[in-house]
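// run 5 | inverse folding | seed 20
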């Protein structure tokens, strides 16, 4: 085995280990968000966290295959298994790349003010049907954004935070847009690393 090949295998193993840790963190955070264990996550569509959970599983599977692949590649009597794993490895990397790109585009689209307003309308309707948690959610929103969820108006009508008349509307829109932008920037920024995966796999074949 040449020196360059050994370095490539080492780099591939290092990237796999980093992705393994990142995938585990992504899985834990996504599952906690789905279970509403993270307070801020009540302001975001749950489908985003479900998609991130699937992405975490793909990244975890991808990194495990890579670790096993580098192990078999170093064994002279395991070349057949290494070739099979290489095909599977490349396939999973491609699937993960496409899926991650799709999530990034979807979250980018969700970050528009119109889509966030629609989501906040659904959020408002959902918490009103969940009586035990409604009060705690509203208290959390009012404390976090220093605003009033309901803004009393003339007569018996109350304006809720999904309308521009509410003092909660602008802060929440800005906060959700900021967080979603960080999501899709992170997803797009890590795509080149997956291309490095592919290049290293092809190089050491």
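// decoded
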């Amino acid at each position: 085995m040449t020196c360059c090949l050994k370095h490539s295998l080492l780099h591939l193993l290092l990237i796999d280990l980093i992705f393994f840790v990142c995938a585990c963190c992504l899985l834990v955070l996504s599952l906690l968000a789905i279970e509403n264990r993270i307070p801020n996550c009540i302001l975001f569509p749950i489908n985003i966290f479900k998609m991130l959970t699937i992405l975490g599983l793909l990244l975890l599977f991808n990194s495990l295959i890579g670790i096993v692949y580098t192990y078999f590649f170093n064994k002279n009597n395991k070349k057949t298994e290494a070739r099979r794993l290489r095909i599977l490895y490349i396939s999973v990397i491609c699937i993960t790349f496409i899926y991650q790109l799709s999530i990034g585009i979807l979250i980018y689209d969700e970050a528009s003010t119109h889509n966030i307003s629609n989501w906040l309308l659904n959020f408002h309707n959902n918490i009103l049907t969940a009586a035990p948690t409604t009060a705690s959610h509203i208290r959390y929103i009012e404390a976090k954004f220093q605003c009033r969820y309901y803004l009393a108006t003339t007569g018996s009508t109350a304006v809720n935070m999904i309308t521009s008349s509410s003092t909660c509307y602008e802060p929440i829109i800005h906060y959700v847009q900021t967080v979603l932008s960080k999501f899709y920037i992170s997803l797009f920024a890590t795509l080149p690393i997956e291309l490095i995966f592919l290049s290293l796999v092809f190089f050491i074949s």
